[in-house]
Amino acid sequence: MEKVNILLSIYDPDIIFLRKQLESLNNQTYKNIELLIFDDCVSKRFDRNVIQEMINHFPVKFLPYEDHNLGYSKAFEKLIEYSDGEYIAFCDQDDIWDEHKIEKCVETLKNDQSLMAISDRSIIDKNDDIKIKSVRSTVKRKYLRWHTGDDIVKYNIFACVAPGMSIMMDGPFARTIVPVSKFTGHDKWAICCAGIEGIISYIDEPLVLYRRHGNNVSGVLNGVKNKEDYYKTRVLCQEALIQDLIKKYPAFINQRDVIEFSQARCKKKRAKMLKYAYLSPNIAIFEFLLSLIPDAFFCMFLKILKRKK
Question: Which sign, positive or negative, has the C-alpha torsion 181, 119, 9, 60?
């Protein structure tokens, strides 16, 4: 059986959530696994004994500590560089995997001869209660209801089509995508690269319980305080991501539309944003309205959102 590296980055994890995640990894039906772990919390190192107690069905390798925090995306970049398996799987510290996840992803990658396999996922809360049984079944936007072999890169640039924990990919290929662009997450970058270079498979079955709680790293308006913040961290960062992607893949076939939409967003050209809105209708509508309202109103809107959380 081909070797699978599970890449787990931890940062001061909730011990209860992590134990449940580790238990689900330990119970995988696939037998040739190695768990690679990187602790990115410089100020509070996690007790490795907890992990060694929980994992007894396959070997665990701890990556060397860094003397500074790498951040979420660069932590996974380091894990990719240390991997040597035929396949790799991204893993977060607070989810729960179906016991057949690795086995079914490997089977799909082989059968489709694809570079990446992405599965459906369920959503659970902090109490493990299932809030959404199938994310796929709730998706309204047509471009997110994609299938194996579809061209999803042009959409993924603006709205990541899948979070990291639902991804498994070809190991040798994964090691060619580093360095990860500093303007996006490792999962979005991996999907873009895999979609340009080959086939991405979709598994229409929830193979992971994705935990959503108040401490999740991601969020559309996370860290945004005003309009300037939004344009700097969302619009300009995506423009820089596109440039990194084109630098790596000069023949990227959808680059014209992607560039036109991105530049329309940067320059707040509303008519052009609407022209290319098919790439991300939500972004086009939101930023169309954002360009019309004063910053004070937007700041008030952000405060209301924070109170609701």
Answer: negative
Burial of 302 (0-12, 13-18, 19+ CB in 10 A): middle
Alpha carbon distances (Å) from 273 to 104, 136, 264, 290: 40, 27, 6, 12
Q: What is the DSSP string of 248-304?
A: H-TT-TTHHHHHHHHHHHHTT-HHHHHHTGGG-HHHHHHHHHHTTS-HHHHHHHHHH
Q: Is there a cis peptide before residue 179, judged by omega within 30 degrees of 0? A: yes
pTM metric for this prediction: 0.94
The rounded distance, in Å, linking the Cα atoms of 194 and 5 is 18
Spell out the per-residue pLDDT of the chain, length 309, in tens.
999 999 999 999 999 999 999 999 999 999 999 999 999 999 999 999 999 999 999 999 999 999 999 999 999 999 999 999 999 999 999 999 999 999 999 999 999 999 999 999 999 999 999 999 999 999 888 778 899 999 999 999 998 899 999 999 999 999 999 999 999 999 999 999 999 999 999 999 999 999 987 554 445 687 899 999 999 999 999 999 999 999 999 999 999 999 999 999 999 999 999 999 999 999 999 999 999 999 999 999 888 877 765
Bridge partners (DSSP) listed for residue 37: 8, 62
CA distance 227 to 296: 9
Query: What letter represents residue 41's amino acid?
Result: C
Q: Which of 104, 88, 100 is nearest to 33 (CA)?
A: 88
- Residue 106 in 3-state DSSP? helix
Give, for 227, the enclosing helix (H) or strand (E): helix 227-230
Classify burial at 162, counting beta carbons within 10 Å of its beta carbon; exposed 0-12, middle 13-18, buried 19 or more. buried
